[in-house]
Amino acid sequence: MEDNGTGGIAHAFNALPKDAPHRNIHDLNQLEEGVKERLYSQLIPSRVFEQFDIDRETFLNQDGERAVEFKTNPKSTYAIIEVREHPQDQDCIFFLEIEDTAFFKIDINFLIINDPHAPRFNTDLDETGRRTKFATVRRNIPEEIKAMEAGLAPGQVRRGLRLLKHFVPLAIGFVAAMGQDMILVEPLAYNNAIVFEGYGFSYIRGRRKMEEINEGFKPGGEYFQKLDGSTPFRMPGTEKTVRGRAWAIQDGVLGEPWRGIEMYRTMKPSEVCTFPDCEY
Predict the structure, then answer these.
(1) Is 35 a domain residue?
(2) How would DSSP label each residue in the chain?
(3) What's the pLDDT at 135?
(4) Per the structure, how many domains does the chain have?
(5) pLDDT tens digits for range 29-71
(6) Structural domain boundaries enclosing 190
């Protein structure tokens, strides 16, 4: 879980004037444009710059185009980082939105990491082009089936780059440099929660629900019995994998929407596992 960029975080913050505000996102957004861009860029795993030939200092790609954008309005309490291989690309390689909470912590609102060269599945749009909002408002079943068969999880439009293991240490180092001691996240799907468990996150709320979900997917359980082949997302055997459970949950197997799960990660990782011996 190490990344060469963690040393860069400390150096970037140490380079700030001693009286420069830096305790929260709103503070950072008050800094000069170049300074805050350098700080926020420390949250981008080095492999993104290396793999896609993006200059870490200028944020230009090999064609001389600006590939990294920062949305850091001085009046706002959030920051957005967008990295694209080319500015006109539909999907980001790396998308991060972080925000101050009312309790003086940092919340990861959204984190998306895509392989822009992988096939795209339009699970984010319905058949008329309307946003599905992560399948919470509407769904595109044909595209979901294709994505599932290609090995993707709910919420993914392309396969990822397996960079979460590099991002988490950067996020921890970043909040530590701000004088904070934890980061918060609200997983958008079941699979996200299980993955975050693997990187040392625990639950602010929802652990009991996650444990109940695990029990429900065991043979004879409430959700296990619903894996009757009635839809492509409810095939027998689905309960054995994280992705399988996540698709069944998105398909409504819980009988209620996926919600109410909040997680946190401190400097010291937790050892929580609500799906022992799982396969992804």
Answers:
(1) yes
(2) ---TTHHHHHHHHHTS-TT---SSHHHHTTS-HHHHHHHHHTTS-HHHHHHTT--TTT-B-TTS-B-EEEE--TT-SEEEEEE-SSTT-SS-SEEEEEEE-TTS-EEEEEEEE--TTSPP--TTB-TTS-B-TTTTS---HHHHHHHHHTT--TT-SS---S-HHHHHHHHHHHHHHTT--EEEE--SSHHHHHHHHHTT-EEEE-HHHHHHHHHHTSTTSTTGGG-SSSSTTS-TTGGGBHHHHHHHHHTTTTSS-S---EEEEESSPP---SSTT-B-
(3) 86
(4) 1
(5) 999 999 999 999 999 999 999 999 999 999 999 999 999 999 9
(6) 6-205+259-266
